[in-house]
């Protein structure tokens, strides 16, 4: 609100409030203040540091959670409204000389209560205060058009056309008063801008309404401005969360692509088995590795052997590994397809959300998202060597993970003899879990336990089918019928 609008408001309040008693004065939040003058209501909203004037419907005001403020003013009659020309301030002066000063200076806006010319309290609460009641007199001496910041561009041009900067102070006062009196009578237009609503004396590109009464204009302006800003902030916040989720999915896609590429680049176990079978005649039992020419004849393939096994037994071992390798590739490909699908779905959700243009739908979407978030699974998810790893988020979540989100083909891990998360290696296809993979997941289980700070920690592991939940047991407590133990370093990164 500029100085002309504030003076116009003060003049109208003078006509409405003088002679009326302040029957109620309360707040329902740290940013809203209600003043009830018998049948007339005034609401001051302090939003983003700025003050907004509203005229609330007294019949719809909430009855609960009212906190009285400025208590000594209750029941006192309004004596007069003091306007401060060319200043963003007006005062309500009461019959007992108490004063409620409206300082409407942008982000420093506040209402201040004075009694016997001494500061009492302010709303919203500010760290700085004016100790005594002051009546400031604004002077025009040496003022130029550029100094009159309360004027808009059109008003400045009008004064400039009258050579305002060169005329005497008395003539400046007359010229400025003439301009002010003209402006105070003008129709006000509520316009919708690109980023916010504006209240002006000129029709904008997208006019919403026009007003001759300042209280109606300020009330509608406040409602639309605040709701639009809340809409913008809420949408921006929710959109930011969606973008964050999209970024996380993008990382998952890249990780899945990398894993599949690694599996595709790796020398095939089946190829090694075939090479061994084709060259059994030249492989001696007891050697730890052999170098065999590839079937293409382009390079040598180094093959590690177990020296306790025959060459044929080593080949059979590689055939078994080959079956597991193929399953890992299939799993990695399936996972890549899944995360790509999720990424595209999230991108589509963002595109759809960006077109939402009202606060109700924004909040509806955000609330739905929150509800979905609250219903999310009780575990964190990671992917190690093509396997999905599920990590319980807490004691009760451990129980839910075990009961609803595992199968007997999965592998269960937990730090030995200390509290921690249940960790599950999902294995619906009964794929062989290599020792290196098991060690990585065990390190994760140790990390999510009380043994996190140890250099080495013992972790037990077993197929899910050997885990039971005793009746009446505390959350997270299970009975393990069969287990093995592995010593690992607690860590997440490999």
Can you describe what's shown?
The protein is an alpha+beta fold and 494 residues long. The chain is built from nine helices and 23 strands. Among the domains are: 121 residues, ibrinogen binding protein from staphylococcus aureus fold (Roll); 110 residues, no CATH class. The strands form six sheets. Strands 16-17-19-18-20-23 form a six-stranded antiparallel beta sheet. The chain has a five-stranded antiparallel beta sheet with strand order 4-3-2-1-5. Helix 4 runs antiparallel to helix 6 and helix 4 packs across helix 7. About 1% of the residues have low confidence.
Poorly predicted tracts of residues: 370-375
CATH topology of the domain at 3-123: ibrinogen binding protein from staphylococcus aureus fold
Supply the CATH class of the domain at 3-123: Mainly Beta
Q: In the CATH hierarchy, what is the architecture of the domain at 3-123 at level 2? A: Roll
Summarize the entry for a quick read.
The protein is α+β, with helices and mostly antiparallel strands. It has helices at 3-17, 153-161, 169-183, 214-265, 269-278, 311-354, 359-374, 395-404, 435-447; strands spanning 22-29, 32-37, 40-47, 50-54, 67-68, 78-83, 89-94, 99-103, 110-115, 118-123, 188-192, 197-200, 207-211, 289-293, 300-304, 379-384, 387-392, 411-415, 423-425, 457-463, 467-468, 479-480, 484-488. The chain is 37% helix and 24% strand.
């Amino acid at each position: 609100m500029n100085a002309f609008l504030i003076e116009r408001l003060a003049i109208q309040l003078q006509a409405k409030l003088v002679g009326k008693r302040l029957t109620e004065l309360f707040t329902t939040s740290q940013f809203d203040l209600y003043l009830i003058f018998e049948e007339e209501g005034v609401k001051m909203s302090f939003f983003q540091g700025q003050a907004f004037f509203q005229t609330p419907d007294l019949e719809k005001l909430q009855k609960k959670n009212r906190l009285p403020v400025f208590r000594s003013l209750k029941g006192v009659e309004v004596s007069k409204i003091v306007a401060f020309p060319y200043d963003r301030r007006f005062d309500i002066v009461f019959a007992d000389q108490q004063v409620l000063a409206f300082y409407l200076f942008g982000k420093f806006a506040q209402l201040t209560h004075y009694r016997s010319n001494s500061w009492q309290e302010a709303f919203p609460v500010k760290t700085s205060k004016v100790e005594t009641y002051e009546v400031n007199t604004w002077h025009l001496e040496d003022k130029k058009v550029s100094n009159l910041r309360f004027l808009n561009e059109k008003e400045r041009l009008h004064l400039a056309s009258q050579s305002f900067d060169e005329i005497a102070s008395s003539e400046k006062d007359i010229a400025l008063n003439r301009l002010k009196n003209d402006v105070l009578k003008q129709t006000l237009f509520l316009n919708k801008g690109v980023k916010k609503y504006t209240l002006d004396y000129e029709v904008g590109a997208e006019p919403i309404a026009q007003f001759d009464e300042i209280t109606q204009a300020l009330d509608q302006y406040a409602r639309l401005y605040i709701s639009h800003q809340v809409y913008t902030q809420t949408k921006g916040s929710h959109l930011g969360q969606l973008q964050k989720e999209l970024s996380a999915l993008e990382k998952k896609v890249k990780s899945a692509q990398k894993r599949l590429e690694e599996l595709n680049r790796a020398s095939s176990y089946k190829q090694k088995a075939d090479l061994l079978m084709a060259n059994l005649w030249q492989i001696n039992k007891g050697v730890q590795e052999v170098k065999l020419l590839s079937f293409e004849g382009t390079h040598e393939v180094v093959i590690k052997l177990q020296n306790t096994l025959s060459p044929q037994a080593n080949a059979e071992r590689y055939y078994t590994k080959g079956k597991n390798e193929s399953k890992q590739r299939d799993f990695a490909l399936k996972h890549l397809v899944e995360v790509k699908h999720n990424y595209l779905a999230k991108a589509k959700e963002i595109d759809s959300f960006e077109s939402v243009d009202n606060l109700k739908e924004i909040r509806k979407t955000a609330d739905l998202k929150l509800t979905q978030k609250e219903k999310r699974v009780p575990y964190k998810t990671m992917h190690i060597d093509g396997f999905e790893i599920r990590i319980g988020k807490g004691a009760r979540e451990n129980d839910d993970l075990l009961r609803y989100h595992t199968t007997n083909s999965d592998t269960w891990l937990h730090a030995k003899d200390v509290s921690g998360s249940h960790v599950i290696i999902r294995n619906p296809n009964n794929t062989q879990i290599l020792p290196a993979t098991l060690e990585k997941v065990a390190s994760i289980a140790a990390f999510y336990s009380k043994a996190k700070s140890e250099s080495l920690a013992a972790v037990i592991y077993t197929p899910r089918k050997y885990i039971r939940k005793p009746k009446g047991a505390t959350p997270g407590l299970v009975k393990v019928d069969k287990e093995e133990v592995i010593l690992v370093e607690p860590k997440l990164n490999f």
